[in-house]
């Protein structure tokens, strides 16, 4: 059983994204033990500039992250792109993975520099809610690939 | 109002994908008139090799496609990748767009060669159900970008 942590900002607001996540978490439970750390998003206001929001969110992320070991993967639109097979190969040796998905503004440099891998899912910009669901689907796909099981898509 | 056609194989099986599609179709209705042509998937069996399945599916697609004009965009994992902003720029001049999403085996060459653009959403392989939802979200995002409207993600 691989241990997977997800550190993310805010909840999945729409019911269909929550149900999509639940479906993939259910499928992933055959391969992994998953813990989701849903941190509170900072809101925009006079005192909270985008820079300060990212810093405050980074402090919360780092407080969880410092207790983690294993492979740390930060989702970052400027990160590296992988084919599904190469991604499966990348996570294959890991006994523990921590994924980090930032809020709408992305992740602060202080978090990015700690990550072992900065991962981009696409050249396109996705909502951070979609990123969460796509990431679970790709992780499930990776587990299926790594255990030589067929996955109809 | 931009006219958008989607030609695709099979239905969205999971309720959460149907609800996600409905949400984006609702949002897109402010900008566009959409028609979805859901064609019947061919099933694997002794008589239906992957090559024959793709050909049979292509015949069905082409029978709809020959009635279409405007910009024809085929989703293809070996296609071109765009940033969301470049994609918005690409579809901006079009009064009519036809998107084509193949089945699990992808699209036959006879369909791909007719397309004005072969579009890849990611280096990763997504399910064709996810592709459909992501495509609507990116099309909605493009419409928001092209009308200079803010879209929180």
From TrEMBL, chains A, B:
Recorded GO MF terms: rRNA (pseudouridine-N3-)-methyltransferase activity
Entry EC no(s): 2.1.1.177
Highest taxon in the source lineage: Bacteria
Binding site for S-adenosyl-L-methionine: 75, 102, 121-126
Major subcellular site: cytoplasm
InterPro entries xref list: Alpha/beta_knot_MTases, RlmH-like, tRNA_m1G_MTases_N
Assigned keywords, A-Z: Cytoplasm, Methyltransferase, rRNA processing, S-adenosyl-L-methionine, Transferase
Catalytic activity, reaction form: pseudouridine(1915) in 23S rRNA + S-adenosyl-L-methionine = N(3)-methylpseudouridine(1915) in 23S rRNA + S-adenosyl-L-homocysteine + H(+)
GO cellular component terms attached to this protein's record: cytoplasm
Localization: Cytoplasm
Major enzyme class: transferase
HAMAP family: 23SrRNA_methyltr_H
Annotated function: Specifically methylates the pseudouridine at position 1915 (m3Psi1915) in 23S rRNA.
Family: Belongs to the RNA methyltransferase RlmH family.
Quaternary organization: Homodimer.
Record's protein name: Ribosomal RNA large subunit methyltransferase H
